[in-house]
Amino acid sequence: MFELLGFGPTGWGLPLLQAAGVTIAAALCGFLLGSVFGIGGATLKLARSGALRTVGQAYTTIFRGVPEILVVYLFYFGGSVVLTKLMNTGGFPGFYSLPSFVIGVLAIAIVSGAYQTEAYRSAYLRLDRGQIEAGASCGMSKALLLRRIIAPQTLRFALPALGNIWQSALKETALLSVIGLTELLRQAGTAAGSTRQPLLFYAVAAVLFLIIGRLTGAGLIRMERHLANPWRR
Questions:
Q1: Closest Cα to residue 131, out of 7, 231, 227?
Q2: Which among 82, 86, 85, 38 has a CA at the least distance from the CA of 63?
Q3: Burial letters for 214-233: b for 16+ Cβ neighbours within 10 Å, e otherwise?
Q4: CB neighbours of 98 closer than 8 A, spacing ≥ 6?
């Protein structure tokens, strides 16, 4: 076991750690890009225009209701078709596809953004309107209100939900093995097939997922406590 998990010529330690790095990178990039989609979606759902609210509602309804693996497939095959048509139209014949990592990040971001939309929307609705009105009466511009009052408190209220969404995004990276991305689960499967030790390598993958989840979750809890400090009595 120690030889198989070691860093020698027959060990799988380094490939597994590299795959864990890919998993973290895909989850982090997807989550951060999903934050952009989430803030945009929350803005749409809080807009005064009924048409904009309908667009925001459609976004969250569709991507929270469709299985994540279907989103991955749609982006992978749909993106390849669109890119191929664009390249062929531009005079470049052949078949083209986006890198698996890019497809995976986009898929995670779209799904994560749909859930983050609700987290940011509900957090915004919890804000004390008196503080916003007091800031406006003191002459604060909208940009300053956003930076000093609205954004910090919205993030503070949204962080518990964002922590759960981050854990989901981390686990969703395992689905990216179906489009050829060598993340942690795919590398564990490769090692299991090569050594005929599936229990060992899948158990190691599970432990690595747990470690990554616990460490990053602890970081989010510290951030939540830090943002809550100014409002503690």
A1: 231
A2: 38
A3: eebeeebeeebeeeeeeeee
A4: 79, 80, 83
**Structural contact between residues 7 and 85, judged by C-beta atoms closer than 8 angstroms:** no
What angle, rounded to 10 degrees, do the helices at 13-45 and 50-65 form? 150
Superfamily of domain 13-228: MetI-like (1.10.3720.10)
Q: Which residue has the tokens 């929270």?
A: 64
Record the tokens describing residue 120, joined without a space: 């940011």
pLDDT at 231: 61
Q: What is the dihedral of CA 56, 58, 63, 64, to 10 degrees?
A: 90
- Burial grade of 70 (CB within 10 A; 0-12, 13-18, 19 or more): exposed
Domain range summary for the chain, segments of one domain joined by +: 13-228
Residue 73 burial (CB count, 10 A): 16
- 34, pLDDT greater than 60: yes
CA 87 to chain centre: 29
Phi, psi of 5 (to 5 degrees): -95, 0
Contact between residue 111 and residue 175 where contact means Cβ atoms under 8 Å apart: no
In this prediction the pTM is 0.89
* pLDDT tens digit sequence for 57-101: 999 999 999 999 999 999 988 888 888 888 888 888 888 888 899
Closest CA to 101 of 171, 36, 19: 19
Q: Are 72 and 103 in contact, with CB atoms under 8 Å apart?
A: yes
